[in-house]
Write a structure and sequence with these properties.
The protein is mostly helical and about 100 residues long. It is built from three helices and no strands. The chain has one domain. The two termini are about 30 Å apart.
Length: about 100
Amino acid sequence: MLEELVELLHILENVNSNVDILTREDFNEQYVNLKDFQVLIKELEEVINDFEKVDPNDGNKVEQYLLEFHRILTTFEWHFSELSDINTKILKKYKDKIEGHTKEI
């Protein structure tokens, strides 16, 4: 999944280079975010592996792991949302800019 997200970011960066809707800094921030995403994947793997050792009758421990799953999942959502925002910003302005219009959507 990480490779696909990096490729997507490259595509968006390429498209943006035709119209300069977003700054280099915007993309640099996303590359840093993808490094964090990679760390998050490893965290999830560790939590899953640790969860396999938890007694299902230990409600406190199970709840602790479910909360950790929730934290990780919502952080994944945030990462996807950030990339979606980049895509949306380009989508809203690209066609008009490439056709030489200055109309803002």
